[in-house]
Amino acid sequence: MNTFCLAPGTASQDAVEALAMLAPALTGEEPVAAWSRENPRTAVFASMSLLELLEARNLQDFSDRLREAGAIRLTRPGAKLVLGGPPSLERVRFNLGGATRSLTFDRRLVRLRDGREIVVAAVVDCRNGVARSPSRKRAGAPNAKASPLARPEEHGGGSRSTSPGNDLIRFLWRTDASGRIAEAGPPFSHFIGRPLLDVIDNGDPAQAAALARHLALRETWRCVTGFSTGGLAEGLAPGLAPKLAAFAPVMLAGMPKFDQDRRFEGYSGFGIVQSAPAARADDAPRPPAAEPLAGRASPQTAPAGAGSGSVPVDGREILAVLPVGALVFEGRSPVFVNRSFLDALRYRDLAAALDAGALEPLLEALPRLSRRSEIVELRAGDGRSVRLRASAKTIEWRGKKAALAMFQSPAEAGPADLESELRRVRNEARELNAILDTAMDGVAILDSKGNIVSLNRSGEALFGYDESDVAGLPFTVLIAPESRARTQDYFEGLISDGMMSLLNDGREVTALARQGGTIPIFMTLGRIDANSYPGADEREVRWCALLRDMTHWKKIERELDDARKEAERASALKSEFLAKVSHEIRTPLNAILGFAEVILEERFGPIGNARYKDYLKDVHSSGALVMSLVNDLLDLSKIEAGKMELDFTAVDANRIIAECVSIMQPQASRAGIVIRLSLAPRLPQVFADERSVRQIVLNLLSNAVKFNVPGGHVSVATAVTEAGQAALRIRDTGVGMSAADIKVALEPFRQVAASRVSGGTGLGLPLTKALVEANRASFSIKSERDEGTLIEIAFPPAKALAD
To answer: Are 260 and 372 in contact (CB under 8 A)?
Structure first.
């Protein structure tokens, strides 16, 4: 059977989509209908259940019903219906067979995909205006399914719920800090001035004790109680008073309110009074005790004497009927939203709000909202920005901890809220000023013309001026004349929003002190948006100048520069001394070596005793060692002073390495060391000083043989690395070194324990490393004690260096 009766040109999908815009839970089995906005008395579709309820045979009969005098208000266009706006309730009367039936419709103006604007409506109650005969099959529609609008659903349940067969009268109330009711709407206004506990206490000690405990702990609570309607009726409009029974069930819920200093200001909440057929008060059971607000799945029921309906006291149902927005989060995921919140933002459901990213600002502000309320700006479904006052607290939701966020328009905030907000803003301003005054750096606020608006305490101490002395003056009055142009260019460059505004790295300038003299400062300018501070003109832009005193750092910089110059001077003196000493030593040493060679060769006659030849050999070898030491010292000092003269040319490294191995082969053979040579066939030439390369290879081979053991090996190899470098690798199986020994060996004039046994001056490895770096190559060493040493020298290719 088809659920809808459709007008020509209307598809079932159009009806389904229109109902979803009114309430996502509607399926079409409820009493629902729609009519054109342009021709409001011509129905577009109607559900079969509504046609049956109104005793209409087809869509034309329903259109005729819309023209009845009692129903004319239903289709009358008014200011309440705005495209995309919230739903609107309308109570109308239909004349059915001489009897009157009053129905409440929830209406909303929506737009279909084809552009048509229609009013979609659903019946939210089935109230009999007069008694009907049981013989009438359709009278009262007792089996008609209640509208989902009467049971708020998660993710978009309606906030105007009504139980079938009953009227729910809602009101708001508020107490002061002492617990007396300060404000309340009808019918609760009768109790203004009385303590809340006295109003609720109807002789149930358990309920009174539970509620007193929640009030003492300042917890959110709810309870169902009953009142004699004699007092309640006094606060009602004349038309509503007869609807109350002699004993009316009332559901109350309250939430504590605090100011920004967490001082308790009282409770605020809402109530629901359910009207029902008269019942004896002494037949009603005692209402349940008060309990904290929590999202349990099983609702409590109202007293039996209250009639056939039930009062919705489940956590979701309470939040759903609140006249203010409510949103529940589990972690960062929203799990419930009421219709008031969705209507305020003009979204169909929670999914639409999430897809549009409307809740992102709220998620960022949620941690702060538990401490104090604040204004949040959210994007509405129509693209505009909506400002809502939001607050949050922790509740229990389905057995888990959750965050409940409540929203109301800033215009709805009362005088107390505005005063609280004013106190909060003033406190924040005092805190910010205290922070600025405590900061070590000077902070100056400038207007768009560069004039001083304010200056913090550190800025006053830096320049020696009070804020009142310089307020309104150009900032450049605090800058030395030689830095004013630089400062002005910096400021104008940031104002122009050009490249300089993207590369804002600050400026070093010289400032003027009031007492005289100059101050080196580092200045950084930053833009302050107009909406960053209260009361600002949207067209006004201010600038924050962060001023850091560089006097101490400049002193350290001078000290470091002086120390560097002193070290360079000392190095130069050392190099000069070594050069002079080397010259003075080499001259007589060359003479000693020359005369020793002449005597050994017996050029002027034979030596009488053969032992003299042995002594002369010792003299010659000792002189040669001293000469080598002097040459090494001179080379090392020249390299450190940057005065080493190197002749860079394209060098065939394989040739030089082979020659050096040939030179060292006899020494290695005498020590029982085997040298293995493996040269890469296509090794590129290196751009280096040939004499230095030869000395590097000889020094490394000499160390590899000297610190090896009989029967050991020395491997010499060349290769081309992945980066195209020519690499020389010399590996030995000698005594090796630890990581600590390597550091010692690379320092001039220091020797490890194995070096002392084998002799040496302690200059070989440091000089080799210095020569490698002077030739723009890299030096690396790896060694393990008793496992040997690997040294690698990597020369960049000649082409790369030439480029």
So the answer is: yes
| Nearest CA-CA partner of 266 in 199, 179, 386, 136 | 179
Reported as a single tens digit per residue, the pLDDT across 472-525 is 899 988 999 999 998 888 888 887 765 555 567 788 899 998 888 889 999 988
Among candidate residues 523, 525, 522, the one with its CA nearest the CA of residue 550: 522
**Reported confidence tier of residue 676, pLDDT bands at 50, 70, 90:** very high
Alpha-carbon distance of 536 to 534, in angstroms, equals 6
Token couple for 654 = 């394989």
Mean of pLDDT over the chain: 75
Amino acid identity for residue 462 in this structure = L
Task: Report which DSSP code applies to 697.
Answer: H
| Cα–Cα dist 525/487, whole Å | 10
3-state secondary structure of 69: helix
Bridge pairing between strands 43-47 and 32-36: antiparallel
286 closest CA partner among 214, 404, 401, 207: 207
Cα distances (Å, whole numbers) of residue 290 to 210, 591, 641: 6, 116, 90
Write out pLDDT tens, residues 525-543.
Answer: 888 864 444 444 445 678 8
Contact indicator for 146, 58 with CB cutoff of 8 Å: no
Cβ atoms within 10 A of the Cβ of 633, count? 20
- Which H or E run includes 97? none
**In the predicted structure, residue 789 carries a pLDDT above the cut 90:** yes
Residue for token digits 């949040």?
376
Two tokens, residue 345? 């933002």
Question: What tokens appear for 700 in the block?
Answer: 């490394």
Chain-centroid distance, C-alpha 101: 58
**Rounded to 5 degrees, what are φ and ψ at 424?**
-65, -45
Beta-ladder partners of 521 = 509, 549
DSSP 3-state helix, strand, coil percentages of the chain (rounded to 5)?
40, 25, 35
Separation between Cα atoms, residue 406 and residue 409, nearest integer Å: 11
Decide which of 712 and 97 is more confident: 712
Strands in 674-678's sheet, in edge-to-edge order, are 674-678, 713-720, 726-732, 788-795, 778-784
pLDDT in tens, 293-324: 433 333 333 333 333 233 333 466 667 766 67
Answer positive or negative: Cα dihedral of 631, 637, 639, 643: negative
The residue assigned the tokens 């050009």 is 498
DSSP strand pairing (713-720 vs 674-678): parallel
Residue 501: predicted pLDDT: 55
User: What Å distances lie between residue 727 and 599, 650, 776, 783, 790, CA to CA?
Assistant: 46, 15, 13, 18, 12
Query: Among 648, 631, 757, which residue's Cα sits nearest to residue 693?
Result: 648
- Beta strands 713-720 and 726-732 are antiparallel
For residue 84, which phi and psi values (nearest 5 degrees)? Answer: 80, 0
Cα distances (angstroms) measured from residue 455 to each of 228, 487, 534: 66, 18, 19
CB atoms inside a 10 Å sphere around CB 558: 10
Characterize the bridge pairing of strands 264-274 and 168-175. antiparallel
Distances in whole angstroms, Cα of residue 251 to Cα of each of 169, 446, 771: 10, 57, 94
Q: How many helices and strands in the chain, by DSSP H and E?
A: 24, 31
DSSP 790: E
Fill in the DSSP letter of residue 157: B
Place of tokens 């070590």: 440
